[in-house]
C-alpha cells in the first residue's frame, strides 16, 4: 500500500495520508514522499490548490512510535532517518506548505496529534470535522513542539490559548478548534471533503492563479518578519534534539508502551536550552 496518495482533478491536487490501520501515523518514508508531492504540485501549472487530508477515521496521530522505538534501539532517531535516501530534515523548508506558491487547505478529518496537529499550522486554511480530536501532545512524551508551532500558534489563537494547548497536551474537538480560531470552521465529518473541495474550487475557478500565488507570498512573507519563522524552525531542531536525547523522552515512550503513568525527572533550570532574539546561540549562557 502506498502510504501517501496524490490525486489531481479540476486544478485541485489532493494529498492523502494513507495508513488508516495505523491511524496515518507518520514515518520518515512518508516525509520523503510528502516533500516530493508538494514540489510536484508547486511545479505543475495545472494545479492551483492543494488539499491535505487523511484516510479513514484519522488525519494523522503523529509519529509512528513503534517505528521510532525500533529505530531508536538501533541508534538515534535522527541518525536513522538521515540514512534514508532523500529524507528531508526540519531544515528542508520545501517540506512546509507555506513554502509553495499554491494555497494549501488542510482537511482534518479525525484524530490529529503531535506532528499531525502541528503540520496543519503551516497550511493556509484549515477545516476540521466537528468530532475531530486535535492534541499537541508533545509534552506527554517528554518532547517539544515542532514545525514552528510555538511561533504560529500564538499568532493564530493568542498566548493564553496556546499555553493551554501546548502545556497540557489536551484534546480539543473540531468544534472547539473553530471556536478558538485554530481552524476556519468545523463541519460534520461526512461533509468535510466536500467542504474542502468547494473552498478549493472557489479559489481554483474564480481567482487568478498568479495573483493568488503573489498574495500567498505577501501574506506569509510579511508574517515571517524577516526570517523569524525560519529562526523558530531552526530552534525547533535544537530543542527537539535536546528533548529526544533526554531522559523524559525515553520515559514517556516506555510509559506509553507499558500503559503506566510517566515518572518524569526533576527540572534543572541550568540544563534547559535558551531561546530568544537576544541570544544568538539557543544553548548559550544568559537570557
What this model shows, in words?
The chain is α/β, with parallel strands linked by helices and 287 residues long. It has one domain (4-223): 2-enoyl-CoA Hydratase, Chain A, domain 1 (Alpha-Beta Complex). Helices cover 41% and strands 15% of the residues. Helix 5 crosses helix 6 (159-168).
- Strand proportion: 5-15%
Mean pLDDT: 84
CATH class equals: Alpha Beta
| Domain module tally | 1
3D shape: globular
Strand order of the largest sheet: 1-2-3-5-7-10
Question: Outline of this structure?
Answer:
The chain is an alpha/beta fold. Helices cover 41% and strands 15% of the residues.
Keywords:
single chain, 287 residues, alpha/beta, 2-enoyl-CoA Hydratase, Chain A, domain 1, 6-stranded mixed β-sheet, 4-stranded mixed β-sheet, 11 helices, 10 strands, 41% helix, disordered C terminus
What is the strand and helix layout of this fold?
Elements: E1 4-9, E2 12-17, H1 28-43, E3 49-54, E4 58-60, H2 65-73, H3 77-82, E5 104-108, E6 111-113, H4 115-118, E7 125-129, E8 133-135, H5 149-157, H6 159-168, E9 171-173, H7 174-179, E10 185-187, H8 192-206, H9 209-223, H10 228-244, H11 247-258
Parallel strand pairs: 2-3, 3-5, 4-6, 5-7, 6-8, 7-10
Antiparallel strand pairs: 1-2, 8-9
Helix pairs in contact: 5-6
Amino acid at each position: 500500500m502506498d502510504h501517501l496518495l496524490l490525486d489531481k482533478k479540476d486544478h485541485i491536487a489532493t494529498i492523502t495520508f494513507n495508513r488508516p490501520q495505523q491511524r496515518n501515523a507518520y514515518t520518515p518514508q512518508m516525509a520523503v514522499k510528502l516533500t516530493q508531492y508538494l514540489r510536484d504540485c508547486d511545479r505543475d501549472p495545472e494545479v492551483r490548490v492543494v488539499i491535505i487530508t487523511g484516510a479513514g477515521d484519522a488525519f494523522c496521530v503523529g509519529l509512528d512510535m513503534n517505528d521510532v522505538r525500533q529505530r531508536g534501539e538501533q541508534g538515534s532517531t535522527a541518525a536513522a532517518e538521515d540514512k534514508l535516501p532523500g529524507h528531508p530534515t526540519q531544515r528542508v523548508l520545501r517540506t512546509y506548505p507555506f513554502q509553495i506558491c499554491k494555497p494549501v487547505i488542510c482537511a482534518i478529518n479525525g484524530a490529529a496529534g503531535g506532528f499531525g496537529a502541528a503540520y496543519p499550522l503551516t497550511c493556509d486554511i484549515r477545516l476540521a470535522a466537528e468530532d475531530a480530536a486535535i492534541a499537541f501532545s508533545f509534552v506527554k512524551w517528554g518532547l517539544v513542539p515542532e514545525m514552528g508551532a510555538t511561533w504560529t500558534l500564538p499568532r493564530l489563537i493568542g498566548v493564553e490559548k496556546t499555553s493551554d494547548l501546548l502545556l497540557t497536551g489536551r484534546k480539543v474537538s473540531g468544534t472547539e478548534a473553530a471556536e478558538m480560531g485554530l481552524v476556519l470552521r468545523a463541519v460534520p465529518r461526512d461533509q468535510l471533503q466536500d467542504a474542502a473541495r468547494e473552498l478549493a474550487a472557489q479559489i481554483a475557478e474564480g481567482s487568478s492563479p498568479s495573483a493568488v500565488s503573489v498574495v500567498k507570498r505577501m501574506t506569509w512573507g510579511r508574517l515571517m518578519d524577516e526570517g523569524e519563522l525560519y529562526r523558530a524552525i531552526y530552534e525547533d531542531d535544537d530543542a527537539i534534539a535536546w528533548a529526544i536525547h533526554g531522559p523524559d523522552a525515553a520515559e514517556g515512550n516506555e510509559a506509553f508502551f507499558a500503559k503506566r503513568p510517566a515518572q518524569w525527572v526533576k527540572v534543572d533550570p541550568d540544563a534547559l536550552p535558551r531561546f530568544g532574539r537576544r541570544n544568538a546561540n539557543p544553548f548559550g549562557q544568559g537570557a
